[in-house]
From TrEMBL, chain B:
One annotated GO molecular function: superoxide-generating NAD(P)H oxidase activity
Protein name: NADPH oxidase 4
EC numbers, comma separated: 1.6.3.1
Subcellular location: Cell junction, Focal adhesion; Cell membrane; Cytoplasm; Endoplasmic reticulum membrane
Amino acid sequence: MGQIEWAMWANEQALASGLILITGGIVATAGQFTQWYLGAYSIAAGVLVCLLEYPRGKRSKGSTMERCGQKYLTRVVKLFGPLTRNYYIRAFLHLGLAVPAGFLLATILGTACLAIASGIYLLAAIRGEQWSPIEPKPKERPQIGGTIKQPPSNPPPRPPAEARKKPSEEAAGVPTGGPQENPMPVNDEVV
Amino acid sequence: MAVSWRSWLANEGVKHLCLLIWLSLNVLLFWKTFLLYNQGPEYHYLHEMLGLGLCLSRASASVLNLNCSLILLPMCRTLLAFLRGSQKVPSRRTRRLLDKSRTFHITCGVTICIFSGVHVAAHLVNALNFSVNYREDFVELNAARYREEDPRKLLFTTVPGLTGVCMVLVLFLMFTASTYAIRVSNYDIFWYTHNLFFVFYMLLMLHVSGSVQLLSCVQLSVTPWTAARQASLSITNCLSCLHHPVVLHQYQRNEHSFFTNTMKRGLLKYQTNLDTHPPGCINLNGTHYQNTHLPEHLSEHFHESFPGGFSKPDELTQNTFVKICMEEPRFQANFPQTWLWISGPLCLYCAERLYRCIRSNKPVTIISVTSHPSDVVEIRMVKENFKARPGQYIILHCPSVSALENHPFTLTMCPTETKATFGVHLKIVGDWTERFRDLLLPPSSQDSEILPFIQSRNYPKLYIDGPFGSPFEESLNYEVSLCVAGGIGVTPFASILNTLLDDWKPYKLRRLYFIWVCRDIQSFRWFADLLCVLYNKFWQENRPDYVNIQLYLSQTDGIQKIIGEKYQALNSRLFIGRPRWKLLFDEIAKCNRGKTVGVFCCGPNSISKTLHKLSNRNNSYGTRFEYNKESFS
């Protein structure tokens, strides 16, 4: 139990509660319930919560799955700095957003779900978790010819790389000037 | 490139047929219940009061009944393992259906979530309509106690309402913790919240019993000096009221009169005396049973009480007659059908959990612990009366490591008639496996290969649950099988290879293509001995083409590698780079014309998807590829 990251679960819950709030708000305003302005408020609150929670934070250990298309929102959320990084602020923000929607019947469930999400965020904040954005990895361009350090110095047939790298450890008597060992002595005089 | 219809039908056909059957069952139930509440005469007055919300809520409730009962069945793993192994399910096609049990569970779960949403929304509208359309004619029918009662009170002070709210919250917790991202990263959260399903089912049983008076009698404290007497009276009444509504009626007759309305159980009632009181009839006392959308005081006038059918001569004949009511309508709540739906699967599941608990009570005896390269530990153990088939998996539980966590591992060696030892290979990835390894192998000797038995006196107590079935058991039942393993995914195939080493003749398998892809050359040493011994055995028995091994090293840094000096048979079968699946499939198709080849994959999703696509493709040799897959997490 010691290594559970609660923030990820709180994030899923908050996103789901945002959607429930939006649905409840639509039902309330479309059905023209009494106090329908609370329905409109709940739609706005739901949209705000969804936008805030859509970019998933980075896990402290291991790789994180990104949500589809979240990099644009990550940039926006990153701009707010400590306001979005700190989970205490998020917990109280969600609690505050949830309360007004609790007075209307259609959005009561959204309130309950968002309140639970805010509680889990509080737990995550107490355990010291923080939101960190998932940075896109810089694309590694394959460099053509980057692995070729040095062109071969001998014509084929060439011995394998291990043999090529050990000229100094060979027994004395091998002619220096290249790893190629000639089976017969070669000289360039024409006799 | 064309999708071969024969292959597609063999691979996907039965699965889609079952999905279609399930879908049509749901649609049928929804439609039938919707029509019943929309048009049935026994719900006529209720429908007038509540409108569309009634039909939607009851129809979605019937779909929820079906899915809540079906969702438990794929989780009875011991039963499924039994079905897989026994001869009671002879057809391979039906056995392959069992591979999809987890997917079916998830489908039912998603359906429950969606229809719960519909059900809750419809009931919220019903609560509103109960308070707005309150009728004094039918006091029994109302859930509200007076006109314009706040619907939120209805929600929170009735048993169905309160249990419903709690169930939605439990479902919310379970659903948000079951997403793929959470399962992959924090499996614990998923596991612990998913065990709340039991709370969900208990709340569901209470929800449909709908004993409304349980809560309303708690509100009965009137004046302080009679409060104590009445409170005690109420509580004893509450306890007995479930059985003796008549008795309660006597007590409460001189108390608040609204209490008598909630005498009967259940919020939604049907009319019992249709023959003596057909809906829409005229009461000669002046009470008008039609057109409830008119204000109440207008409907008292007798001259308006003629049925509207006179103006439309082509309506049903029953409307052209003026019906006289013999008596007041009587209402009764439905028997909670949900109890019938969910009691069977719930009892089956509980029985299975009990059986598993009893079976796993005895700890195993660990024989040896071996440390392999690339963070793999092999454990060999024995247990009394433990039987397993190759390809099955077990769940390990070690209280010294963690009191609550269980982890599944595939058996790499199964007990046979001659040898009762069985074993698992564990890859050390997370904190549980790390702690487990530290308990099994003291840190000083983790570099050495095998721990002698003498030093093993202090092994921790280990309990196993299982064995449970998996699709890989089928690989011995095909004439030709292609087994593809990625990394540690080789474990189910290791048990198959161990079984073939023991005795290959009783099985239908006559040719096995074994492809193993790894990132690190040292990983091949986990089973290099087994592969070489198997290769030699088949060579000696003059069946060299029984097992065709291909090993692939997918990542290389350019230096030539070999597995080990003594594994010459494997070194010559080692390829650098990723396998080329299409060429492989073509070669297998050419060498096995007209046969059915079973394709098994235990590895990363990308390989699995490629193999699935290739299995559905056409080939000119008439070979059929049947794809079998295990889904993890």
